[in-house]
Structure formats: structure tokens, C-alpha cells
Specification:
Low-confidence stretches: none
Number of domains: 1
Number of strands: 0
Helix content: 40-55%
Order of helices and strands: HHHHHH
Mean pLDDT: 80
Distance between the termini: 23 Å
Largest sheet: none
Length: about 100
């Protein structure tokens, strides 16, 4: 918990740890990824680009920076490494 708190901060760490108590990634096998690879690629190709997302976030006033969500600067490389583990979902970086 101390490592997670040092990386993500006191506000985010408890919720992240709670959400990840049961890891959905344990259900995914290499075979599943191979079988569904074309479908995975199709979904990824339909995602909006960075500029589109930035425009949307701005219009909706969505918090999208570390400062906006109350996470202090520093340790960006470590945060990037662990970012796929923040939510109990299966982004490509996590698989």
C-alpha cells in the first residue's frame, strides 16, 4: 500500500486498491487474445485520437492532468508504468 500511495497519492490509492482487489486480468489467456485479435484491433482503430479527446475533455470540463486530479508532480515514469493497473479493466498496456 505504501508504494501505491507514494505513486498515486493519498486520495487515489485507497479506491484503486479496493477496485483491484479481484484482478480481471487473471481471466485473460494468450489464446483468448490470439482468437480475438482482429476484433481487438478493430475496436482500437475506432477510438478517437488525442486531439479529439482533448477537445471533448475541454468541452466537458473533464479533469485530465495530474494537477487537476490532485496528484503531485514527480515520479511520472513510475506512474506511467503502473497506470494500466489503476482501474480493474483490461487496457492493451495491461495485457
Amino acid at each position: 500500500m505504501k508504494l501505491i500511495t507514494s505513486i498515486l497519492g493519498d486520495k487515489l490509492a485507497p479506491g484503486i486498491l479496493d477496485e483491484n482487489r479481484n484482478d480481471n486480468a487473471e481471466l485473460v489467456t494468450t489464446g483468448m487474445s490470439k482468437i480475438n485479435w482482429n476484433a481487438i484491433c478493430k475496436v482500437i482503430s475506432q477510438l478517437p485520437g488525442r486531439n479529439q479527446l482533448e477537445e471533448l475533455y475541454e468541452k466537458l470540463a473533464v479533469k485530465s492532468t495530474l494537477d487537476e486530479i490532485g496528484v503531485s508532480r514527480g515520479l511520472e515514469d513510475v506512474r506511467l508504468k503502473y497506470s494500466p493497473m489503476v482501474r480493474n479493466i483490461l487496457p492493451p498496456m495491461r495485457m
